[in-house]
Amino acid sequence: MNDKRIYESPLLFIKDSLIGENVKRSLKTLADLQGVFRNCEAYEQMSPDTLLYEVTCHMPVEEGTIGGLYFGITKIYPGKVGGEYFMTKGHFHTNMDCGEYYWGIEGEGRLIMMDQTRKVWSEQVFPGSLHYIPGGVAHRVANIGNSVLSFAACWPSNAGHNYQVILENGFSASLQCVNGTPQLIEI
Ligand code: S6P
Ligand code: ZN
User: Fold this and answer.
1) Which one of 26, 34, 86, 133 is separated from 51 by 20 to 30 angstroms, measured CA to CA?
2) Between β-strands 84-85 and 80-81, what pairing exists: parallel, antiparallel or unpaired?
3) CA-CA distance, 85 to 81, in Å (whole number)?
4) Going along the chain, which residue ranges are E strands?
5) Rounded distance, CA 54 to CA 77, Å?
6) Ligand 1: which residue has its CA nearest to atom 6?
7) Does the pTM exceed 0.85?
């Protein structure tokens, strides 16, 4: 007999794609990350249309809602600007109390974190890796492999994003490819 109380999930999270209602997708090109990479000359020589990453998010409640959650998948393409790996812009949450979970789906990357004293550290991202980002810690991810890196994230809907402070001051270290291996270089 058909049980009318059982519904199909309104959302599908298959491998690295998210399908359903209230799902928004945004693309970030090199032009969107002006001033983020260290090597300005290398940046200027590349096409501003180069696709760096895309984010697909399920946002079921209004931004700022206390107690709600957002879920997102980020796909970062492989590549470098000078010696610096393609990476996300990076941000603090506006509400410094709000933490976040990241977990690796495919590819190879580094989660780079920086606290408010500008201390920087990183964690390896790989399929199955799980990362807890405490409140008050800026975060960005770099793709250190030759294929797409994808990871999922879950964060509170009242977290907000402060990109400005990162654009103005950057992280205090950048992830550079040195003799073929990633190294966090302090600036
Ligand atoms: C949101 C969460 C991620 C990032 C995404 C892109 O709090 O940390 O979904 O938005 O990885 O990074 P960014 O720094 O460009 O927002
Ligand atoms: Zn975040």
Assistant:
1) 133
2) antiparallel
3) 6
4) 11-14, 17-20, 23-29, 51-58, 69-76, 80-81, 84-85, 100-106, 109-114, 120-125, 130-133, 138-143, 149-156, 173-178, 181-186
5) 9
6) 88
7) yes
In single-letter form, the type of residue at position 157 comes to: S
- Give, as one character, the DSSP assignment of residue 79: -
Nearest protein CA to atom 5 of ligand 1, as residue: 74
Name the one residue in this structure whose structure tokens are 């209004």.
62
What are 43's two structure tokens? 């940046």
Asked whether 85 and 143 are in contact (CB, 8 A), the reply is yes
CA 182 – CA 98 distance, rounded (Å): 29
Tens digit of each residue's pLDDT (9 = 90 or more) over 98-119: 999 999 999 999 999 999 999 9
Sheet holding 173-178, edge to edge: 80-81, 84-85, 173-178, 181-186
Pocket of ligand 1 (CB under 6 A): 55, 72, 74, 88-91, 100, 139-140, 153, 155, 159, 161
